[in-house]
Amino acid sequence: MKTRLLSSIRRFAREDRGAVLVEFALVMPFMILVFALSIEAARMLWSYQSAITGVREASRYVARSVPGNICSTGGSLNAMSAQLKTMVERSIDGEILFPSAVTVNTVVPGLTCVNGNYRSGTVSIATVTANVTIDFPLRGILDMFGGGLGGVTTDIADQARIFGQ
């Protein structure tokens, strides 16, 4: 009986038919994690780059549509917030630039007047700042590994010198 048991154990120890399946089962969760992280990183970079482009275009728009002497006349850019938010969120054709998990919370224009010995006297500079939240759709997969990532909220800003109409 003892020899029979020993021979069964030796035969089992030499057998390697299921080794590949066991190795795959051990490695598969890490492969899923790397895949999910790659997808989320690519989405986040794409969304962030789209938001940067929108903010840059909005600041260029402000630089060309506001009068060049806004500092001396005492004007404000606050009335343009809704229009600038639309410019950041949408393309020229009106299509939404971001996936549904990206939210543009606020877009705030600002005005800075720089005094100096310039040809035109005071130089006016427009600043457009957008607050953007990027959520992660594959959050469930990342939570299995203890990720707990809810999303990223960041401010994106760009400045442009106001040249006027």
TrEMBL record:
Upper taxonomic lineage: Bacteria, Pseudomonadati, Pseudomonadota, Alphaproteobacteria, Rhodobacterales
Bilayer-crossing regions: 20-39
Residues annotated as domain TadE-like: 18-60
Domain of life: Bacteria
InterPro entries to which the protein is assigned, alphabetical: TadE-like_dom (IPR012495)
Protein's name in the database: TadE/TadG family type IV pilus assembly protein
Keyword terms: Membrane, Transmembrane, Transmembrane helix
Organism: Psychromarinibacter halotolerans
